Amino acid sequence: MARVKRGTTKNKRRKYILAQTKGYRFDRSTKERVAKEAIKHAGIHAFRHRRAKKREFRQLWALRINAAARPLGYSYSKLIGALKKKNIALDRKSLAALAKDYPETFAHIVKQLA
Fold first, then answer.
1. Which of 3, 7, 48, 77 is found 20 to 30 A from 96 (Cα to Cα)?
2. What CATH number does domain 7-113 carry, 2.30.30.90, 3.40.1790.10, 2.102.10.10, 1.10.1900.20?
């Protein structure tokens, strides 16, 4: 069989790995072995935090809704329960946006529950 030289493939792979670690500090951006480890850890954290982000936003929406609902005589849980009983199908994200940006509209929705 003919001899196969792997120099170009190896260089291409190394270049790809180091391109992924651009902006990292110290050896993580210049040395292939350390860069591979950094990419592996970064991927694990990215995967975990994509899921955590969803939890954090839902928590933020609940906090905003609760803060807006308290002066109107409702707690968060009572407001959500009342909305479900009246079949008002607004999700937490849009309720939180209304509470934050359009408090008078939010108050109008809450008054419909009484």
1. 48
2. 1.10.1900.20
